Amino acid sequence: MKSIFACLIGVFSIFTLCSFGVLEQNVMQNKISFYTDPQRVHSLNIFEVSTFAGDTVPLRRYDVRERLDRELLAFTYMHSTTFLLIKRANLYFPVIDSLLTANGVPTDFKYLALIESYLNPQAVSPAKAAGIWQFVPGTARDYGLEVTDQVDERYDLEKSTIAFCKYIKGAYSLYNDWATAAAAYNGGRSRISTQLRKQNVSNFFDLYLNEETTRYVYRILAAKEVIAHPWKYGFTLSKQDFYHTVGVKELSVDSTVVDWAEWAQMQNCSYSQLRYFNPWICDPRLDNPNRKVYKVKIPKSEDLDFEMNKVFIYNREWLDE
């Protein structure tokens, strides 16, 4: 009996040693795999030089570096959202850039639009801010945009961008600093002006503000860095990954439209396509008692199907070549 028991102990010991040996080998293999796996997560290096709208960002300051690092990490590791932002930027940045330039506003402000709405032309916030620039109704009307049950020009990319230019230039005239003007777009001019006076400082980077407005400007800075140079942060795209540009023709409408769906069909266009290319249309009908002239975009039928030669790449750094 003792001999049998001794044999069992010996077999168990050998099995245990072998098991630990296999386990240790697996652990080592996993460790090797972990350290050589290209998908492992990296921390980020804070770049040494950054500007916003031509002004230098004080990156050597401890607070600026820490806050920017937080937002860089967020943009780098929310992969699906950042990929979507790059693809949308390819569609909307050309229009926004040209309008900002034409109206004397630095093109870095296109990243403010990205932060506001994630470049979703139909975005609506819980506070009822709408469109790519997220105007609330009262401010939109103050800057010349029509906001009614039938027409909401906050969703019109061109008109809302021009309205934004008016707002931000007005803010810049108050502060003579673009980053502070950007903070005012989020926090409101009255609040920013009051805090500048109370804290006896002259620009955003020296202001103590609530977390939302503070993060807002740093998110713009982080978006500029990651979206402008996605390959530096591990995002690889090829030309076929982008949405192609659909050409449109513009028709003028200066009278009542009883039924937009019927009107669209007369233009060889579906109601769905009409609303997609004209998100400012908010109702199946347009009364238009003042006979205002509206520019309505109709997609060209030959551009509706995807073809690689219709993909225009706005920033060549977006391509993994």
Poorly predicted residue ranges: 4-9, 11-36
Q: Roughly how many Å apart are the termini?
A: 74 Å
Quote the beta fraction. Answer: under 5%
Question: Count the strands?
Answer: 4
The chain-level mean pLDDT equals 90
Main sheet record: 2 strands, antiparallel
Task: Give the CATH topology of the largest domain.
Answer: Lysozyme
From the 3D coordinates, which CATH architecture of the largest domain would you assign?
A: Orthogonal Bundle
What share of the residues lie within helices?
Answer: 40-55%
CATH C-level name of the largest domain: Mainly Alpha
Shape: globular
Tally of individual helices: 11
By secondary-structure content and strand pairing, the structural class works out as mainly alpha
Tell me the domain tally.
Answer: 2
In spatial order, strands of the major sheet run 1-2
Provide the gyration radius in Å.
28 Å
* Helix and strand sequence: HEEHHHHHHHHEHHE
Detail the topology: elements first, then pairings.
Elements: H1 2-36, E1 51-52, E2 55-56, H2 62-77, H3 79-102, H4 110-117, H5 137-142, H6 157-175, H7 178-187, H8 189-199, H9 211-228, E3 248-253, H10 260-266, H11 271-277, E4 294-299
Antiparallel strand pairs: 1-2, 3-4
Helix pairs in contact: 2-9, 3-6, 4-9, 6-7, 7-8, 7-9
Describe this structure as you would to a colleague:
The protein has two domains: 190 residues, Orthogonal Bundle (Lysozyme), CATH 1.10.530.10; 61 residues. The strands form two sheets. The chain has a two-stranded antiparallel ribbon with strand order 1-2. The chain has a two-stranded antiparallel ribbon with strand order 3-4. The longest helix has 35 residues. The protein is mainly alpha-helical and 321 residues long. About 10% of the residues have low confidence. The radius of gyration is 28 Å and the shape is globular. Helix 4 crosses helix 9 and helix 7 packs across helix 9. It contains eleven helices and four strands.
